[in-house]
């Protein structure tokens, strides 16, 4: 009985959407070509190192571009950028900003920019060479919300700006929409789906050119599965991209990440692109490495394409993370030194909801020099550590605020360490 | 004194055989002539004259014992003045302007001067061992002047003959009248003309140079990394020979799609080593709006999207809706 209103409303709203799309589909469109969405190249050296298998993983700085539902998994604000000289010809640069925002439990917002630029295109004439530049840029505004702990939805509005400048001058503009879903089957398995550029032409999903020509933005359904090993050290993912409105073969992506050190990760993947060589697809190997120190993350990916030496592309990403947003609830579960390690061990991914945040404190110390030494050790380990004076002759060291989702390994390391006196478990606002 | 090859057709109804004889008026002499019995065609290997306009008398002599029927132009056994032959003589070419061009793009010929130009006049560039380059956009301004274009993109450098003919017949030659010059550019560059091009209307011709004969492959990529077209060229043939090489791309992918506005990356690769020999960037820019048809998102996909949207909407708001309904019920 409780769910009857849900069902009662679900059906008419679904019918409304179907009728809406159905109306659009029956209206005359145009026999148009399909433009290129530059986000297809891949965003972030981490996903690219994993063969672009990331739809189910997308959780931090890359969520805006790959699966906006992943914005619900951001715990801190992040500012990220990536650069590559794609195939040796395309200057490819991205910027992204994400911020956790509690919309319907968890949520997040983000903005992004993807710029691809091809300079020095030659138009020969009898008098010599004339030069033009081409750009294909996308601006994204994304938001997500989580109606349930294990389910999140997200959407990204994409504004396209592409065209030629120089000897040839023509600019096309348009917009489209991405819809993403993430579902955690359990603590180690998850599914992701991102429907990219889903707006039909008649609803505006197109690029319009000054001469009246209109070109569609290809709609792609990207579905992915992710899995995490029991100790949390290896993450693997499989994606499949299905072309919705183009009669083209689908492409698959497989990737894995091994976090062999709290700050270091190795990655590898198999990435497919369309290939005229085989009339279907070609599989390329990708490799990557990640280094995270404190609130700074550096990722690199090595990605050859089609066995051609000049096509080898090096992707470099740089990300800065901010602090987690203010906490509302605070519950001390390990008020005594003896209880601390046990409580941390209990706080495994299986035991606690993913949104829990763990504040780990060392102390109190009666000498400030000892607190400083502990603090420095923690900073050297890449922790976001600070010393606090709790009273006269009493200092504590706050080693950092951690979420289980992205720092399970760090918590386990801390559980075996010395000097941890209390753990405070809080939930964000 | 100019020399021209001509082919003359006489309407003759032959039952048996005959002997042909020609006579000319004015300063004209005939080098040789042959007659094809099966096609009833007289062909002169060369007529030497100082004048581009002259008269020719032609006729047949009946062989003994052979009956020759009467026709429009031949009767009896004597010569017949066949003044209509004058128009059968092709045009002559005297000069071309400009007389040279770079082989990186088509060239517009401002003026070809000569005689007897008509609407059926065909203009070509010829070089031994190379495919003829036929003029496009031929505009016969007058009987003595023609304007046209030659696509000399990727043409072999050298002095080409200019041939002007009447369609289907022999014509006049301006020996080494036009020079194709090799434009200097980086060896690892592939260029194409026109750039940009509109696949709905035209093809683009790609031009690149090789240092030596080699097997090559041409790949075209989108800027998102899909390989949409390829072609193989054998060593020593066009595309794999030392010097100038050309091929055309019609803007269609190997998957049957006409490519849309954008830039496509061209790579010429040595397949044995994976080494990139030359690179180019091809612009596609449609010049007119495309033809209307139905929309592009399949119904099944629309239903999935619709259900997903509804689910998201309701999942987020179901609690509030439920509470609101509960309140209404209580009231």
Overall description:
The complex is a heterodimer of chains A (429) and B (331). Chain A is of the alpha+beta class. Chain A folds into two domains: 291 residues, Porin (Beta Barrel); 102 residues, Alpha-Beta Plaits, CATH 3.30.70. Chain A contains six helices and 22 strands. The N terminus of chain A is likely disordered. Chain B is mainly beta and 331 residues long. Helices cover 11% and strands 47% of the residues of chain B. Chain B has a five-stranded mixed sheet with strand order 8-15-14-10-11, with no helix packed on it. Chain B folds into three domains: 87 residues, no CATH class; 90 residues, Immunoglobulins (Immunoglobulin-like), CATH 2.60.40; 94 residues, Immunoglobulin-like. Chain B is elongated. The chains are: A alpha+beta (429), B mainly beta (331). Chains A and B meet through helix 1, strand 1, strand 4, strand 5 and strand 6 of A and strand 16, strand 18, strand 19, strand 21 and strand 22 of B.
Judging by the overall fold, what is the CATH architecture of the largest domain in chain B? Answer: Sandwich
What is the number of strand segments of chain A?
A: 22
The shape of chain A, in one word, is: elongated
Based on Cα principal axes, name the global outline of chain B. elongated
CATH architecture of the largest domain in chain A: Beta Barrel
CATH-defined fold name of the largest domain in chain B: Immunoglobulin-like
Can you tell me the number of structural domains of chain A?
Answer: 2
Structural class by sheet pairing and helices of chain A? alpha+beta
| Major β-sheet profile of chain B | 5 strands, mixed
Q: Which CATH class of the largest domain in chain B is shown?
A: Mainly Beta
- Total E-strand runs of chain B: 23
Q: What count of helical segments of chain A does DSSP give?
A: 6
Across the major sheet of chain B, the strand order is 8-15-14-10-11
Layout of helices and strands:
The complex is a heterodimer of chains A (about 425) and B (about 325).
Chain A: H1 4-26, E1 29-30, H2 45-49, H3 63-66, E2 78-86, E3 90-100, E4 107-125, E5 128-148, E6 151-166, E7 170-184, E8 189-196, E9 206-208, E10 214-216, E11 220-228, E12 234-243, E13 251-261, E14 264-275, E15 280-293, E16 296-303, E17 313-321, E18 327-334, H4 339-346, E19 357-365, H5 368-380, E20 386-391, E21 394-403, H6 404-415, E22 420-428
Antiparallel strand pairs in A: 2-3, 2-17, 3-4, 4-5, 5-6, 6-7, 7-8, 7-9, 8-11, 9-10, 11-12, 12-13, 13-14, 14-15, 15-16, 16-17, 18-22, 19-21, 19-22, 20-21
Helix pairs in contact in A: 4-6
Chain B: E1 2-9, E2 18-25, E3 28-36, E4 41-49, E5 55-62, E6 79-81, H1 85-88, E7 92-97, E8 100-102, E9 107-115, E10 121-126, E11 133-134, E12 136-142, E13 145-150, E14 158-166, E15 171-181, E16 191-193, E17 204-210, E18 216-221, E19 227-233, E20 243-249, E21 262-270, E22 275-284, E23 292-293, H2 299-330
Parallel strand pairs in B: 8-15
Antiparallel strand pairs in B: 1-4, 2-5, 3-4, 5-6, 7-9, 9-13, 10-11, 10-14, 12-13, 14-15, 16-17, 17-20, 18-19, 18-21, 21-22
